[in-house]
Amino acid sequence: MQRRQFIKTGCSFCLLAAAGSMLPTMLAYAGKKNNVYKTTINENKQAEIPLSLFETGNLQFVRIKRWYYDIAVHKEEDGTYTAILMKCTHMDNQLSVNADGFECSLHGSHFDKKGAVTQGPAELPLTTYATTVQDQSLFISIPNSEE
Ligand code: FES
Protein backbone atom coordinates (compact mmCIF):
# COMPACT_ATOMS: atom_id res chain seq x y z
CA MET A 1 0.00 0.00 0.00
CA GLN A 2 1.40 3.31 -0.99
CA ARG A 3 1.53 6.21 1.41
CA ARG A 4 -1.20 8.19 -0.37
CA GLN A 5 -3.54 5.18 -0.37
CA PHE A 6 -2.79 4.55 3.33
CA ILE A 7 -3.71 8.16 4.21
CA LYS A 8 -6.93 8.01 2.17
CA THR A 9 -8.00 4.75 3.80
CA GLY A 10 -7.03 6.00 7.27
CA CYS A 11 -9.03 9.22 6.87
CA SER A 12 -12.08 7.28 5.74
CA PHE A 13 -11.94 5.13 8.86
CA CYS A 14 -11.54 8.24 11.02
CA LEU A 15 -14.61 9.86 9.46
CA LEU A 16 -16.67 6.71 9.95
CA ALA A 17 -15.55 6.43 13.57
CA ALA A 18 -16.39 10.09 14.23
CA ALA A 19 -19.82 9.73 12.63
CA GLY A 20 -20.47 6.57 14.64
CA SER A 21 -19.57 8.25 17.91
CA MET A 22 -21.93 11.15 17.17
CA LEU A 23 -24.85 8.92 16.21
CA PRO A 24 -26.36 8.54 19.71
CA THR A 25 -26.27 12.32 20.22
CA MET A 26 -27.85 12.92 16.84
CA LEU A 27 -30.58 10.37 17.53
CA ALA A 28 -31.32 11.91 20.93
CA TYR A 29 -31.62 15.33 19.35
CA ALA A 30 -33.87 13.94 16.64
CA GLY A 31 -36.06 12.42 19.34
CA LYS A 32 -36.48 15.80 21.01
CA LYS A 33 -37.51 17.34 17.73
CA ASN A 34 -40.25 14.73 17.38
CA ASN A 35 -41.54 15.58 20.85
CA VAL A 36 -43.28 18.75 19.62
CA TYR A 37 -47.04 18.51 19.25
CA LYS A 38 -48.27 20.53 16.29
CA THR A 39 -51.67 22.17 16.37
CA THR A 40 -53.66 25.20 15.31
CA ILE A 41 -55.79 27.80 17.06
CA ASN A 42 -59.52 27.11 16.91
CA GLU A 43 -62.35 29.63 16.50
CA ASN A 44 -62.43 30.13 20.29
CA LYS A 45 -58.78 31.28 20.26
CA GLN A 46 -57.64 28.08 21.93
CA ALA A 47 -55.03 25.49 21.08
CA GLU A 48 -56.21 21.99 21.95
CA ILE A 49 -53.82 19.21 22.89
CA PRO A 50 -54.65 15.71 24.10
CA LEU A 51 -54.01 15.00 27.77
CA SER A 52 -52.56 11.65 26.75
CA LEU A 53 -49.40 13.52 25.70
CA PHE A 54 -48.49 13.81 29.36
CA GLU A 55 -48.36 10.05 29.78
CA THR A 56 -44.84 10.23 28.34
CA GLY A 57 -43.66 13.10 30.57
CA ASN A 58 -44.78 16.17 32.51
CA LEU A 59 -43.14 18.61 30.06
CA GLN A 60 -44.44 18.81 26.51
CA PHE A 61 -43.90 21.27 23.69
CA VAL A 62 -46.61 22.67 21.48
CA ARG A 63 -46.03 24.31 18.11
CA ILE A 64 -48.89 26.33 16.71
CA LYS A 65 -49.05 26.51 12.95
CA ARG A 66 -47.14 29.50 11.56
CA TRP A 67 -45.72 30.46 14.98
CA TYR A 68 -41.99 30.85 15.38
CA TYR A 69 -41.93 30.12 19.12
CA ASP A 70 -43.02 26.92 20.82
CA ILE A 71 -45.10 26.78 23.98
CA ALA A 72 -43.79 24.69 26.86
CA VAL A 73 -46.63 23.01 28.74
CA HIS A 74 -45.84 21.59 32.15
CA LYS A 75 -48.12 19.35 34.16
CA GLU A 76 -47.74 20.39 37.79
CA GLU A 77 -47.80 18.01 40.74
CA ASP A 78 -51.26 19.26 41.73
CA GLY A 79 -52.63 18.31 38.31
CA THR A 80 -52.78 21.85 36.91
CA TYR A 81 -50.96 22.91 33.75
CA THR A 82 -48.63 25.82 33.01
CA ALA A 83 -48.24 27.05 29.42
CA ILE A 84 -45.27 29.34 28.72
CA LEU A 85 -44.19 30.93 25.45
CA MET A 86 -40.52 30.11 24.84
CA LYS A 87 -39.67 33.65 23.70
CA CYS A 88 -37.08 35.63 25.64
CA THR A 89 -38.47 38.93 26.92
CA HIS A 90 -35.11 40.64 26.43
CA MET A 91 -34.72 40.52 22.64
CA ASP A 92 -37.10 37.78 21.49
CA ASN A 93 -34.63 34.90 21.18
CA GLN A 94 -35.99 31.33 21.20
CA LEU A 95 -35.41 29.81 24.66
CA SER A 96 -34.25 26.36 25.59
CA VAL A 97 -35.13 24.26 28.63
CA ASN A 98 -32.72 23.57 31.47
CA ALA A 99 -33.08 21.80 34.81
CA ASP A 100 -34.40 24.94 36.55
CA GLY A 101 -36.65 26.31 33.83
CA PHE A 102 -35.60 28.18 30.70
CA GLU A 103 -32.44 29.85 29.45
CA CYS A 104 -31.54 32.16 26.62
CA SER A 105 -28.35 31.47 24.72
CA LEU A 106 -28.11 34.99 23.31
CA HIS A 107 -27.32 37.08 26.41
CA GLY A 108 -27.72 34.57 29.24
CA SER A 109 -31.10 35.32 30.78
CA HIS A 110 -32.63 32.58 32.92
CA PHE A 111 -36.25 32.02 33.89
CA ASP A 112 -37.75 29.63 36.41
CA LYS A 113 -40.39 27.00 35.55
CA LYS A 114 -43.16 29.57 36.05
CA GLY A 115 -41.48 32.07 33.70
CA ALA A 116 -40.12 34.50 36.32
CA VAL A 117 -36.71 36.05 35.64
CA THR A 118 -33.95 34.53 37.77
CA GLN A 119 -31.05 36.11 35.88
CA GLY A 120 -30.99 39.11 33.52
CA PRO A 121 -30.56 41.01 31.35
CA ALA A 122 -34.26 40.19 30.78
CA GLU A 123 -36.45 42.09 33.23
CA LEU A 124 -39.94 40.88 32.34
CA PRO A 125 -41.41 37.43 33.00
CA LEU A 126 -42.23 35.11 30.13
CA THR A 127 -45.66 35.15 28.52
CA THR A 128 -47.97 32.58 30.08
CA TYR A 129 -51.34 31.36 28.89
CA ALA A 130 -54.39 30.24 30.81
CA THR A 131 -55.24 26.55 30.48
CA THR A 132 -58.41 24.56 31.02
CA VAL A 133 -59.09 20.85 30.98
CA GLN A 134 -62.17 19.47 29.29
CA ASP A 135 -62.78 15.78 28.74
CA GLN A 136 -59.51 14.34 27.43
CA SER A 137 -58.06 17.63 26.16
CA LEU A 138 -56.10 20.57 27.46
CA PHE A 139 -57.08 23.94 26.01
CA ILE A 140 -54.53 26.76 25.94
CA SER A 141 -56.16 30.18 25.63
CA ILE A 142 -54.36 32.38 23.12
CA PRO A 143 -55.71 35.94 23.38
CA ASN A 144 -53.67 37.22 20.42
CA SER A 145 -52.19 35.04 17.73
CA GLU A 146 -49.46 37.32 16.46
CA GLU A 147 -46.44 35.27 17.57
S1 FES B 1 -32.42 37.85 23.91
FE1 FES B 1 -32.50 36.56 25.63
S2 FES B 1 -31.13 37.43 27.03
FE2 FES B 1 -31.06 38.76 25.31
Write the layout of secondary structure elements.
Layout: H1 3-33, E1 36-39, E2 46-50, E3 59-64, E4 71-75, E5 81-85, E6 96-98, E7 101-103, E8 110-112, E9 117-119, E10 128-129, E11 131-134, E12 137-141
Parallel strand pairs: 1-3
Antiparallel strand pairs: 2-12, 3-4, 4-5, 5-10, 6-7, 7-8, 8-9, 11-12
FE2/S2 (inorganic) cluster binds at residues 88, 90-91, 93, 104, 106-109, 121-122.
Overview of this protein structure:
With 147 residues, the protein is an alpha+beta fold. The protein has 2 domains: 1-34; 36-141, Rieske [2Fe-2S] iron-sulphur domain (Rieske Iron-sulfur Protein). Helices cover 21% and strands 33% of the residues. It contains 1 helix and 12 strands. A hairpin with a 4-residue loop joins strand 8 and strand 9 (117-119). The longest helix has 31 residues, at 3-33. The model is unreliable at 13-34 (pLDDT under 50). FE2/S2 (inorganic) cluster is lined by residues 88, 90-91, 93, 104, 106-109, 121-122.
Top keywords for this entry?
single chain, 147 residues, alpha+beta, Rieske Iron-sulfur Protein, 2 domains, five-stranded mixed β-sheet, four-stranded antiparallel β-sheet, 1 helix, globular
- Helix and strand element order: HEEEEEEEEEEEE
CATH-wise, what's the superfamily of the largest domain? Rieske [2Fe-2S] iron-sulphur domain
The main pleated sheet reads as: 5 strands, mixed
What share of residues is helical? Answer: 10-25%
Q: Which regions are unreliable across 5 or more consecutive residues at pLDDT < 50? A: 13-34
Tally of DSSP helical segments: 1
